[in-house]
Amino acid sequence: MAGRSPQEKKALSYAKDRRNDYGENDKSSRRNIRRNKRLPNRADRHREHQVLAIATGAGIVDEVVEQAEAMLLAKKSMWMTKRWRKYRDAPLADIVVNRLRRRIRLGMEDPTTAEVRIERVRGRQVGK
């Protein structure tokens, strides 16, 4: 099997390498993902505990128990209302292009040279 040329390596790097574009520290994701999965479950458990505490009070009335059961069934889970989802990192080429466009927008770079660089990055991508 023949080795790849530097141009092929660069094109594969732009296509396959990925970067975190969430906007926060990528190392904090280990902690934040667990927290974002944990908090809705905790909120659901807390809400259910409050409703059940009302239903199992000193003066238990069938109507109160039925209302509590209806409240538990009617309320949507925090998983449905918060709608937090993980998403994967972006390809390196997209990150580079976005940074170049940001530099143009902020006036940090000449638009004509930046557009040439953007076209160069797009041309190096595999399959384009």
Helix content: 55-70%
| Strand content bin | under 5%
Q: Whole-number radius of gyration?
A: 26 Å
User: What number of domains?
Assistant: 2
The secondary-structure class comes to mainly alpha
Overall average pLDDT:
84
Spans of at least 5 consecutive residues with low confidence:
none
Ends distance = 24 Å
From the spread of the alpha carbons, the general shape counts as elongated
> What's the helix count?
6
Helix/strand order:
HEHHHEHH
Q: What is the total tally of β strands?
A: 2
Largest sheet: 2 strands, antiparallel
Major sheet: arrangement of strands: 1-2
Question: How would you concisely characterize the structure shown here?
Answer:
Residues 30-40 have a biased composition (Basic residues). Residues 1-49 are annotated as: Disordered. With 128 residues, the protein is mainly alpha-helical.
Descriptive notes:
The protein has a two-stranded antiparallel ribbon with strand order 1-2. It is elongated and about 80 Å long. It has helices spanning 6-16, 29-55, 62-74, 78-82, 92-105, 111-124, and strands at residues 18-19, 90-91. With 128 residues, it is mainly α. The chain has 2 domains: 1-18 and 88-128; 25-87. It contains 6 helices and 2 strands; from the N terminus they run αβαααβαα.
Q: Keywords for this structure?
A:
6 helices; mainly alpha; elongated
Would you spell out the secondary-structure blueprint of this structure?
Elements: H1 6-16, E1 18-19, H2 29-55, H3 62-74, H4 78-82, E2 90-91, H5 92-105, H6 111-124
Antiparallel strand pairs: 1-2
